[in-house]
Amino acid sequence: MELFGKIKGCEVYSHTLCNSKLKVNILSYGAIIQSLVFNGVDVVLGYNTLDEYVLDDMYLGAVIGRVSNVIDGAKFTLNGTTYNLDKNDGDKCSHGGYNGFNKKVFEVESYSKTHITLKCFSADGEGGFPANVTAFITYEIKGASLIINYKAIADGDTPLSLTNHAYFNLNGEGKSLEKTYLKVNANSYTVTSPSLVPTGEIKSVLETPLDYSSFKSIDCLDVNFCVSGNGFREVATAKSTLTNICVTAYSDKEGLQVYTANELTARKGKTALYTPFSAFCLETQGYPNAVNEPNFKSVILKKNTEYNSTTEYKFSLI
Question: Given this model, what pLDDT does residue 293 score?
Fold first, then answer.
């Protein structure tokens, strides 16, 4: 554990998880994955200082809450009441608003060489969302896997859809995505408007550029795939034939946002310059705008019931 910086009088620490396969640095600010080294390659984007994370506009490595992705019109109706949210993305609420989980200093509940549990509190009305929410994020390494468990409880009904916004590059940070290939376990996707808001329609990926049922080069993507199957299962695999590194994502969530850093403006990272399309995200999630689309699976957490979801990123060599 090392002091990473201070914000508004609060100390932020970097915590290292390490075994013979992985070395992962987790920050208590935003519960951020700051680095992830496998086979000698740091495969996630990040910064070296807290100030850079405070100013960051692209959620690098952060936990996203209360609701990942977009909410159209920055509002929704629940139990007969309409809630107006932060409009931090045009007319939309994106990734929890101006002060989402990515901007919180988390408390460390427990910490060891191979796991850390972080806790945060989101007050009733924060960002416009109802109910008080207490969330726990646990990172654990087992072999060559990084496992993320999300738990939360609320004292009233409220939307909740948590994810992590790690930007992966299996060739190493600052490199292109040359010879990086993707496979997604999905037969369909949620159609969006030109402003990237789901229309409520779900379409087949078959015979479209979004068919990643077998490995192909990663194209420019910002799409929510409807993951096939139920329960905890494989959702996607990416591999690089330059480094021979492969990552397979597993999740119990219904959605997977694949985003290829299309809007990542040029900026200095840990050891390199980052540019658009220099990484990809595999964000396990509920469907975007589910609070306003009755045919999507609900993301409402009921009062005094536990939110519990797990995502695993398993690394290997091909």
Answer: 96
Helix (H) or strand (E) holding 52: helix 50-55
CA dihedral 205, 310, 129, 72 (to 10 degrees): -10
- Tell me whether residue 201 is one of the annotated catalytic residues: no
From the candidates 126, 140, 173, 283, which is the catalytic residue? 283
* From 165, 173, 254, 293, active-site residue: 165
Amino acid 196: pLDDT: 87
Pairing of strands 307-317, 245-251: antiparallel
Following CA atoms 100, 104, 107, 113 in sequence, which dihedral angle do they give, to the nearest 10 degrees?
90
165 is catalytic: yes
Q: What would the two tokens of residue 51 be? A: 């100030």
Asked whether 10 and 4 are in contact (CB, 8 A), the reply is no
Written as one string, the DSSP assignment of 111-169 is E-SSEEEEEEEE-TTGGG--S-EEEEEEEEEETTEEEEEEEEEESS-EE-B-EE---B-
Tokens of 184: 């997604």
259-301: pLDDT as tens digits: 999 999 999 999 999 999 999 999 999 999 999 999 999 999 9
User: Is residue 195 predicted with pLDDT exceeding 90?
Assistant: no
CATH topology of domain 2-317: Beta-galactosidase; Chain A, domain 5 (2.70.98)
